[in-house]
Design goal:
By secondary structure, the protein is an alpha/beta fold. 40% of the residues lie in helices and 22% in strands. The protein has an 8-stranded parallel sheet, sandwiched between helices. Strand 7, helix 5 and strand 8 form a beta-alpha-beta unit.
Length: 353
């Protein structure tokens, strides 16, 4: 049995990731896991979420099992307001089990693993909208809402896929936290990085949202932080928005007015990692009265765009030129990536566990 630390996972990925490895190894890996899930949807049940019963604890515990062919394991993460104040975020682990014997093959810290596989899921669809192997003249600014690990790995992946990008903008409620993320990223990216506060830099915020071709929402927010009035409505200009931060029915990142105007009751489809899980957990979809018929899975979008990209893009492109993706996360994503990392990353091996 192997134990792999968060530092080991992070160091390995920062060294290993480039356009080729993302496109040839990691994206196919994630797609294959999601395809298995679609064959056996009951094998990845909805996450169990429980508030701590310990006095004075504000921690939420999440339990996420996965029992798929060759992909068996469980992810457990915990977090809450106190963790955020301590700058701990969510803490947890992913356990990879032998699918035949149930023996524990590996335990991997979940922090970087979760952030990386979530950003990777965003990019599965992104590369079908903006092909990294082509000159993307219309690919302008990248905007990330959030300043935590999820935001960090979205920036790492998008800059490895599109090295010609010139500007990455980071927006957080606190400008200090956005600037801290910029400092963390400066060691790994060459693009210009700019920090903004969503509460102070309102005029600048409106302008960078309007100019952005790629927008990542990485904030666990109960109020819309991506204002519909700021989004460029030019139907000829493609904008890709991936929302990953909010994971409960009462949470939301994108303005409901925008969803109601361009998606509710319309034929335009929204890309999701799981139709059933997103309809049960996503505030944007639940509050926007989005129906299952309006959803297309990441795998469907991935494969359909290989057959006929223009037709596929028309199905998901709103009248505002926005292609919208909502991800709530599935344990199979963690397990398939963890299984790969268990083979590739050095860790502490325990023979007699």
């Amino acid at each position: 049995m192997k134990i792999i630390s968060d530092a080991a996972v992070s160091a390995y990925l920062l060294h290993d990731l480039n356009r080729e490895s993302i496109m040839q190894i990691y994206i196919p890996l994630l797609v294959s896991g999601l395809e298995m899930f679609e064959q056996y949807p009951d094998a990845v049940p909805e996450r169990t979420v429980r508030q701590s019963t310990t006095t004075n604890s504000d921690t939420t515990h999440l339990f996420m099992p996965c029992v798929l062919p060759e992909t068996v394991g469980v992810k457990v993460v915990s977090g809450g307001p106190s963790n955020l104040r301590k700058k701990l975020g969510f803490q947890g682990s992913v356990s990879v089990l032998n699918e035949y014997t149930g023996e524990l093959d590996a335990v991997i810290n979940a922090k970087t693993l979760t952030a990386f596989r979530t950003a990777l899921a965003s990019c599965v669809s992104l590369v079908k909208v903006f092909d990294p192997d082509l000159e993307n003249e219309n690919l302008d600014l990248v905007l990330v809402f959030g300043a935590g690990p999820q935001a960090f790995w979205h920036v790492i992946l998008v800059t490895r896929l599109y090295p010609a990008l010139s500007n990455i903008n980071i927006i957080s409620r606190s400008k200090d936290s956005a600037q801290a993320l910029v400092r963390d990223l400066e060691r790994f990216v060459t693009q210009k990085l700019t920090a903004f506060s969503s509460e102070q830099d309102l005029n600048d915020l409106r302008e960078v949202v309007r100019k952005s071709s790629i927008i990542f929402g990485c904030t666990p927010s109960t109020d819309a932080i991506i204002k519909g009035e700021y989004i460029n409505k030019d139907a000829q200009k493609t904008k890709f928005i991936s929302l990953i931060g909010s994971y409960k029915p009462h949470m939301i990142e994108l303005d409901l007015d925008f969803i109601n105007k361009f998606y509710s009751g319309k034929e335009t489809k929204i890309i999701v990692d799981s139709k059933s899980h997103c309809l049960a957990e996503s505030g944007e979809l639940i509050q926007g009265n989005i129906q299952e018929s309006q959803l297309v899975s990441v795998t469907e979008f991935h494969h359909d765009s290989q057959k006929d990209q223009q037709s596929t893009l028309r199905g998901v492109r709103s009248d505002a030129g926005v292609i919208l993706q909502k991800l709530v996360g599935l344990s199979v994503m963690d397990i398939v990536v963890a299984k790969h990392l268990a083979q590739a990353v050095e860790g502490k091996v325990i023979e007699d566990f």
